[in-house]
Amino acid sequence: MKKKAIALIAAACSLAMALGGCGSSSSSTSGSSNGGKVIITAFGSEPQNPLIPGNTNETGGGRPVELMFARLVSFDNKGNAKNEVAQSIKPNADSSEYTITLKKGWKFTDGTPVTAESFTKAWSYTANAKNAQKCASFFSTIKGYDDLQKDGLKGDEQLSGLKVVDDYTFTVTMNQPDATFPVKVGYEGFSPLPESFYKDPKAFGEKPVGNGPYKFSSWDHNKQIVLVKNPDYKGNVKVNNDGVTFKIYTSTDSAYADVQSGNLDVMDSVPATATKTFQSDPNVEAYNKAGSVSQTFTIPSDLDHFKSNTEEGVLRRQAISMAINRKTIVDKVLGGVGTPAKEFTSPMTPGYSDSLKGESNLEYNPKKAKELWAKADAISKYDGTLTFSYNADGGAKPIYDAVVNQLKNNLGIKAATNPVPTFQEFRTDVSNRTIKGAFRTGWQPDYPSPENYLYQLYDSAAADNQGSNDGDYKNPAFDKLMDQAYAATSTEAANKIYQQAQEILLNDLPAIPLYYGNAYGVAAKGVKNFTMNWQNQPVYSELSK
């Protein structure tokens, strides 16, 4: 999440959300049952990992982590950045060095102060390969990152590009210009950490200590994560309730039924069975607007007959993409709560274009698909079964049933689904590289920039479990364009370079874009201020009742 790989595709799949059907429908969610306090119950999924910001890149953990940790900047509901813990973030002339000054008075929930070292040590820990953190690649443009990827590290080595000037000032020297850095630091992977973290990271992950609008209360695994309002928080986020409890579900249908009955307050998706009816359902408050989540499936770049650096592999990837009727899936399976994909970011992203070179590879063309598949078979005959793995607790079944049926009908190949029971198990399989076929992927942006979709998912630096490049795609030409975009002198110039980079992706198809998930979900009757933000997530802090 966050972050993130989308927890699941909930139902129609919106964005991540691992659904859990085990939310208790017997417990009342009314304010009166909580001593007069307003506690919001929200749909959640069991996090893949302990709740450590630098090791959280999916929405099961991302939802609570986002609320518990404040970064240098925060984003409003539309994705605009505003200084949060930072007093100022000042670049030099070519954005190769930044001087960051912190606001005084920030504290972690254990009472210790948030200082410059709270950031520099946390960032270095996350970047250090010895610590195997999921968000490591986000720090790759900071000087010293490559040194922290070497063998033989202890885990406490620091990024050489980070220098503490005093308790409230530090400098960041980049190994290359990075104009997106002042926005990127709003991502949860850039959260500060208290000294207590380093004494026992494992224990910390079970009972995290943050500095955000909410603080940790309890985590009953596979049942719920309880957060309460942080009375010492004085940042940009306005908190209208006394706490948020994430109920962990394994079924979107169960969660939706709980919203209908008033036993769950908010859900950032709806089950496939309700996508056509939720907006007219009198028992819920519905939300459905254009969103920023990209839904794809990834074929490992080293999969036999599908290797992304071979002619055969590229032909097969293009054939598969052209054999899929995205509009039919959006209309018939998703009930219209999505938009067929045209590229690798989203319509909500600066620099988005629906007419890039190679976009035709995402258009339904079964005749050409068969021709391309035949060309690939002429190189090396393939008679295996292509499997599609997905988490069964997220409502993705009808989507991948449709994909498999279309490939069978339009290409005449053998294809099958391979559901994995829970999102946590599924993401573990992805991380361990044990899936020998295609697998569902999705991305909820961490910050509003094409870089977040492109570099973090497809650059070589984010491969091999150093980031979120789950298919381990590597293309030097693409990597070079990423470097050029970082050095661009304006957002407009960078966006043009990102478009060039996308043209490489549209040819190679390391992942195959299916659709953009709308920001959609439901709230129980009586819940006030229900809206969703630029990440397709409910604005939990604004909810009341």
TrEMBL record:
Q: Which organism is this entry from?
A: Bifidobacterium thermacidophilum
- Cite the InterPro entries for this sequence: Peptide/Ni-bd, SBP_5, SBP_5_dom
Taxonomy, superkingdom: Bacteria
Presence of keyword Acetylation: no
- Name of the protein this chain belongs to: ABC transporter substrate-binding protein
**Keyword Signal on entry:** yes
Give the signal sequence positions.
Answer: 1-18
Q: Which UniProt keywords apply?
A: Signal
Describe the location of the Solute-binding protein family domain by residue ranges.
82-463
Give the PANTHER family listed for this entry. Answer: ABC TRANSPORTER SUBSTRATE-BINDING PROTEIN, PERIPLASMIC BINDING COMPONENT OF ABC TRANSPORTER
Name the lineage: Bacteria, Bacillati, Actinomycetota, Actinomycetes, Bifidobacteriales
